[in-house]
Amino acid sequence: MTKIKRILVSQPKPESEKHSYSELAEKNNLKIDFRPFVQVEGVSVKEFRQSRIDILSHSAVIFTSKTAIDHFFRIAEELRIVIPDEMKYFCISESTAFYLQKYIVYRKRKIFYSCAGNFADLMDIILKHKDEKFLVPSSNTNRDEIPCLLKKNKICYTQAVLYHTVCSDLSDLSDINYDVLVFFSPSGIKSLIQNFPQFKQNDIKIATFGPTTAKAVQEAGLRLDISAPLPNAPSMTMALEQYIKEYNKNNKK
Predict the structure, then answer these.
(1) What is the pTM of this model?
(2) Among 10, 132, 183, 213, which has the highest number of CB atoms less than 10 A from its own CB?
(3) 253 pLDDT exceeds 70?
(4) What is the gyration radius of the CA atoms in the chain, in angstroms?
(5) Residue 229, preceding bond cis, omega within 30 degrees?
(6) 145, burial (CB in 10 Å: exposed 0-12, middle 13-18, buried 19+)
(7) Average pLDDT over residues 199-220
(8) CB-based contacts of 82-88 (< 8 A; 24+ apart in sequence)
């Protein structure tokens, strides 16, 4: 067994030079590459119109990602819809909420977010506003957890598919020559299997963020080695660092 030295993160490389992965690489002498395993394609206005969803008949929007925000405002702009100032926004995390500043004057809007960064926590906030009519912008691979919780709590909502998540073409990788593969969605696991149907995990470690991604690994017949978030490791980089330090300490090569 050799030390962990190379990691592939199945997401785009962060825009800034200094980020949590660069710090992880520097502190632990790692090479970390980034490659999106999935890509997002926005639905056309024609396709959206076929859904017969009236955005302005809703009084609140639930955002579970920055991608959802981008495509909500894209569709609104293409439809020449002016989103009223009274619209309420419920976001999965603080960073997602702050991303709204790209499109609206943040301080003048009614914006709520989960401090814990999960939908169960956000649901507690939504329940305090259960008289609103919610719009949930999503992808074609939206997690079942969200509509299930909304239905269970008798929340009036409409799910609007505004973008599709499709597998990236990874043929240029030719081989998965990494010690750790990091995934953030079931779609990433699907892309791995689709691009590399003969993939054998062997000593490659798989790290996932979130319960649905962890479940997708197991359903694919693969071994899950690193899971986040955890109470002592709320971020992926913290979970990776804890695992790598322990693993490399026990494998000196």
Answers:
(1) 0.74
(2) 183
(3) no
(4) 20
(5) yes
(6) middle
(7) 93
(8) 83/55, 84/56, 85/109, 86/59, 86/110, 87/58, 87/59, 87/60, 87/61, 88/59, 88/60, 88/61, 88/112, 88/129, 88/132
